[in-house]
Each structure stands twice: as structure tokens, then as C-alpha cells.
């Protein structure tokens, strides 16, 4: 399978675009800041879709993660990246008008071969549960499932085991608060 080279834009440490284009490989090799998009998909009753990253992934293989996440390519809008990634990873076509932005989160993770310095442009998106085929699999995703916010909060608290990807508690709290505020009339 031929993988095309991805080009990303280098961002300043403050999160500003620089206009500099670089390969994803070099960005990760040199630890340049860049943009990613995260979309947390949830249902009216407050269940959140999570994906299990493929065991073939270089970073965090087999770990549960955000519903949809990916790099923003050079000259691509954040919302266009969200739409592309949702289709690539979970096979759905989203309407970007329905994306609700939570914020932008700075993230630095150093791995043996990758220096990952990202700005996560983070959104929530309410969908009808019937829209998601939880049996959808591809090269990036081994499994999909809906879990309650309580289950997710418990997964994140179990930091001793690497079950769930993130470590930024504030980030997750913001996601939970937003989803709870939208679905609160159903509790």
C-alpha cells in the first residue's frame, strides 16, 4: 500500500501559523509544533464514541482514543481536516456546521523516534447512534464503541494502566462539561 507523504504547516510555540511547509516525518523528527483536529462524537443520551487505535500504529498502538483525530494538512482548514478524518477513520460524512469548538490544547509528547508537539483543535459533535457503524474497521482503527461519560472518567482515572491515551485532565474535563451541558436535559 503506497502511503502519500503528508505535508503539515509548522506552528510557533504560541500556536500561530508560520506559513512554513514541512513533511510530517520531519515535523515529528525535529519536534516542530503543528495542528491536529480532535472530534469527540457523542449521542443525545450522553454516550461518547471512542476508537481503539490499530496495533499497527507507531504511536500508542492498541490504546483507546478520541472518536476522531488527525493532522491538519498544509493549507487545509481545521474543519475540512475534521471532515476528512471522520470519513477516513470511522466512515461517516459529517456536517462541519454542527461541530462545536471547545478550544485549542497544547500537547507535547516525546517518544523514542517522534517528538510530537501539537495544538489539538478540539470539537464535540452530536450524532444519532444509528449513524455510526461500530463494526467499521480500517488500517487506523481496530475497534469502536460507545461508552458513558462516567465510564470514560473512570478509564482516565486509571492512569497506572495505559488504557486511554491522554494525560491532560483539564482537556478531558472541558470535553465532559461540554457534552454534559448539551445532554443535561436528558439526565
Overview of this protein structure:
With 187 residues, the protein is α+β, with helices and mostly antiparallel strands. The protein is built from 4 helices and 9 strands. It has helices at residues 24-30, 78-90, 149-157, 169-183, and strands at residues 7-11, 17-23, 33-42, 47-53, 64-65, 68-71, 100-110, 115-126, 141-148. The chain has a 4-stranded mixed β-sheet with strand order 6-3-8-7, sandwiched between helices. It has a 3-stranded antiparallel β-sheet with strand order 5-4-9. A two-stranded antiparallel sheet has the order 1-2. The longest helix has 15 residues, at 169-183.
Distance between the amino and carboxyl termini: 47 Å
The largest sheet has its strands arranged as 6-3-8-7
Structural class category: alpha+beta
Q: What share of residues is helical? A: 10-25%
Helical region count? 4
